[in-house]
Amino acid sequence: MTLASEEEETFVFFKKLQAGWKQMMEFLHKQDDVTAKMLKDPEVEQFITKTAAVFNDAVDFGIREVPPADITTQRLKESNYVFSGFKVFHELKETFPSLIDGNGNRKPFEQFLSDVQTVHKKYNSQYLRAEYNFAVNSSLMAAKWEQFQKDGDRYYLQYRTAGDERVRISHQILEDITLPVNSPFWDKYFPPNGWGCRCTVVQVRKSKYPASDVKQAMNAGSSATAGKHQEMFMFNAGKQMAAFPAYNPYTIKKCATCSKSGFKLAKIPDNELCAVCKVILEMKQAKENLKLQRAEVKAWAKDNLVGKTVLVEKISNPVEFTMTGIKEALNQPHKQVRSKNESLKDIINLLKKGTYVKEDFDEKDNPMILKYHYVKIAVGKEDSYAVIRELKDGRLQFYSIVEKIKELRKT
Fold it and tell me: What is the pTM of this model?
């Protein structure tokens, strides 16, 4: 990859996160402090999700040639969410002091947003490029480790560098280290062993390559990862099923050995990151539960809703339910997301009782769509709006459920 293409991709990442960053800064601008619980606020959580999505793309790219089991891919992506949660917390902590000017007054939002652009570029351009590459390589190696485990001890594993002038001296000493798959060496020094590490591991025949001295190999590994913060790379992505190690630039060293039972820490250090960890793990569990709910509702809708029709007030033709509309509704963000998803099981009655609000033409100029209709319905304890799209061939299809529509947004 050329430098120009790296810069272009970095810019793409930055642009992907730009809108979410502004929303998060608008939220932060109204706050009096930064707390762990703040990560649960929708404006912050959405940015965590957007950041994790970049790393999830890295996972998909890394495993494209050696696809692992679905559970491995799932765990790698779950680790991205945790990593992103810690990262976003650091972004909030670093930007918060910029809220106040030299006179102790809160800055106007636009000034504050301008002042924190340097933080945004640092975390979501400079750092993100290195982290993305690391996630690509660690995911590839996790997939390889899974294949190595399937073959058991039939082969030795051999460490290989990229073999060019760019290989760092500290990694050259690991070249050709050959050990069994169950050697403790691979627990700590399975690549990647640093930012930008391009090393790999291959299987070799035992009859062709003798095993290395384990003690010498461990000493070489220790030398390769010596230096400030280098010990954070002493992990095996395949064994831990994580794209990033537990101890990383956004956590503390104790995170690598922290023992948990549910959300109860074995020891509670006096560190705010422990509170952050608890919140992030709770959020991850909630996302997993939400994913299960979506799958359950989707399966129900496929059997009980798709293909049916309903007549809606002020719409002359019947509205049809399709799998496209069900998926769109399930993926649509909503403050009462669980109630929104569950409401699909009663969407026919909700539409019959709903109040027609307005129609609007398609702003994206989709050649298939003529316009959209909006019907106010009850979701949980709040009003929401069912979206019905009218195709140019005259068909009407339920399309989604949203919290607000443009004319009704508060200014």
Answer: 0.80
